[in-house]
Amino acid sequence: MTGLILPGDANRWAEDAPGSPEPGKLVRAMRDPGQFDAFYATARQRLLLQAFALTGDLAAAKRAVRDGFVAAWHHWHKVSRQDDPEAWVRPLTWQHAQRRHTAHFWHREGSLAPEHRATLDALDELTAIQRRALLLHLLGGLESDDFCHEIGLTQASAQRQLRLAAAQFAIHRDIEPAEVATTLRALGDPLEAIRLPRASIIRRSGTARRRAHTSIAVAVLTAGVAGIGFAVSHDTPGIASIAGLRGADADTGRPGAPGATVHLDPADLLGGSDVTRLAAKPLSEASTGNNTDGTGLNVPCQAQRFADPKALAALVRHFASPVTAQGSPPTGLVQVVERSTDAKAATSAYDATLGWFSDCAGTRVQLLAAYQLEGAGDAGALLVLRNQAAPVTTWTIGVARTGSIVTTLARDIADAHGPDLPPFVAAVGTAVDRLCAADGGATCATTPRKALGAPPPGPSAQGMLQAVDLPPIAGIALPWVGTAPTKATTNPAATTCDHADFSGPDVTSSLTRTFLVPQAKLPAQFGLSETLGRFRSEAKADAFVSGVEKKMASCEDHNLTATVDEFKHQPKGPLGEIHAWRLTIDVSDSRSIDFWVAVVRRGPDVAQVGFVPVDKAKLDQSDFQALVERALARLENLPPA
């Protein structure tokens, strides 16, 4: 399966008239005006719908379609030879639409019917990449192995973003997943009456454009330009600069190509003797390369081949897992190294690498622990993750930077036991020592030590819980999906005891989001919510938390059906303040409902976490407490007050 297939999905929005060319697959021999006109008539309405869904701006969408086809006629001698001419026009049309769209999403289309406005509202809740993935698949008819190139992701990451986009769109649009495709296509209904320029007008504009470009070229040549240059049309998708970076292949731009003037030496990587304590039996070197073969994805949740797309060089070494001793789980190990142009670029690559492990949306990977590594070069971090999908696998990830070099060491063990961390920390230190003396290296390792640290910031909703933070639900083999954060005008994490309100005058900013397992078909009340607020001062935040405490403590006095148990009371801690309760409401003599709720505070920042379990989907108290502690740690991801 290469992409999300929704029930009732068709690869194209509209059926073509009998005898018309297959959408986007016109014959290569298209050269005369009649063939262009047929292509324009077939594809223009599809592209108008796509551009409108992308921006919500009808004026921008109409002009973008016009400009895209004008450019297509300008380059028709090349476009007509494409296997899929529509694939040439589409990225150009989308680019023009986004460039022309300057208003807030759908703001300029106030006359839309409520159902179409609701669809655009739901699309607006998605990230830019998620929206593009969803539209390319459902309105463009592309599978993930095709559209991943258009959105700049690997196929696996594109599939993950597509699944997440469909799930979040269904939640925000309040529809079933099976209705996503038809709901998006329904946006085309109000576009049926839109009049686009005739094909003859498009061709005249394209011809005039070609003549203008030719005149400019002749003028430049006759002016006697000194030197030799290359003219690249900005309308031609997929054409890269002819100049490559140092250490990169001029054709592919990939780091570490043959003939690179800046390189990494494989001798500076870890060897078998350096990793003897990381497995039950000694690991042996299996392969070493520049990470340009295969998918290039070496660690869980990795979003792209290189953390620094402009890296000067890269190396990856895999260690073979030997036949394990009886009772010992299989172990794998990989080291990845990237050399950036300077320390600033390497710092960005270091941050990007860590960010992968907070963006495991659409998977069942859980971030179990996060540490800082002190004494491991210029910067270092240690993470423990577990993939809950069978077979359960535990990953230990070490990321370190020395100068302009970033190295990642990743070990996977096929079991659910806690990993032995001290030998791994020592191996990360050895990796840094091997690289710090290399070209581009800087600070070497001393004696690396781990200390509890903040988890890597997520790609969105910084300071809030991420899907990777949530524990698995027993008996449900499906991932959590989080909604996009919105302003906390209401607080879904509150209970009937505390009624905590994050919209008061003492709150300068607030956000709320909810996590669900949308495909598990659980009762509607199930879910985990978090609401975050920054207060005007630390004193205001402290008073807010004290108010919640008092309301929870007096709840049983005001509600005779309520039982409140505060199982975590930490007014002062190394990271901040934690209070957590289990609230039970008796709804009859034989039935009760449980709620888990907690508030955490770090300085002026307060978060409330609420979980409503159901019979088939529950969390243990220890799991909820660990999640609340993670919510407190996530507050460190916020910018300073």
TrEMBL record:
GO terms for biological process: DNA-templated transcription initiation. Gene3D superfamilies: 1.20.140.160. One of its GO terms (molecular function) is DNA-binding transcription factor activity. Residues 1-23 are annotated as: Disordered. InterPro entries: RNA_pol_sigma_r2. SUPFAM superfamilies: Sigma2 domain of RNA polymerase sigma factors (SSF88946). This is RNA polymerase sigma factor 70 region 4 type 2 domain-containing protein. It comes from Nocardioides jejuensis.
